[in-house]
Amino acid sequence: xxxxxxxxxxxxxxxxxxxxxxxxxxxxxxxxxxxxxxxxxxxxxxxxxxxxxxxxxxxxxxxxxxxxxxxxxxxxxxxxxxxxxxxxxxxxxxxxxxxxxxxxxxxxxxxxxxxxxxxxxxxxxxxxxxxxxxxxxxxxxxxxxxxxxxxxxxxxxxxxxxxxxxxxxxxxxxxxxxxxxxxxxxxxxxxxxxxxxxx
Length: 199
Description:
Helix 9 (156-179) crosses helix 10. It contains 10 helices and no strands. It has 2 domains: 5-66, Homeodomain-like (Arc Repressor Mutant, subunit A, Orthogonal Bundle), CATH 1.10.10; 70-198, Orthogonal Bundle (Tetracycline Repressor, domain 2), CATH 1.10.357.10. The protein is mainly α.
C-alpha cells in the first residue's frame, strides 16, 4: 500500500514537507487509537508531533483530514484510475481498479486497519465518510455513465446504482476486515461482497 515511485517528492522542500506530514499523521493516528478520536485534541497532536497548531493546519485543514488523509488526492486517484481503464473493460472491473488504487494510498496494512477501525467505530467520522462518499459518487457519475452508453438515455439511475453498490461493498468489506482484526485481504472481501450482490 505504498506510494508509487512516480509520486515521490523531487526536491528537498517536498521531501521535508512529506516527512513532516507523515510524522503528524502517525502521531494523530496513534493518539486516536490510544484515547479515541473525539477525545484527542488538535493541540495535543501538534504538541506530540513537535509542531505548532498553525503548522499542523498548513498540512491538514481539519481534524478529520488527519484520519482520512488527503481527500482531494483520493478523489484524483479514483477518477484518474477509472478514466485510464481500457474502453473494453467491464464496469465492475473498472470500479474495482479504482477501489484498489485508493486502498493502495495507505502507507501500510496496519495503518489502513487502524483508519478503518476508527472510521467504523466513531459516529462523527462515519457521518463525515458518508458525506465524502456521496461526493465521490457524484464525481464518478459522468465517467461511469459514459461507459454505460449514456447516449442511449435513461442510464443515470443504473449508473448511480452501480456506483453506490461498489461503495456499499467496500463498506461491507472494510467492516468485515476490521471485525476480523485485519485477517485476509480486503479486496478478496470486496469481491465476495460484490459476488453476493450480483449473484
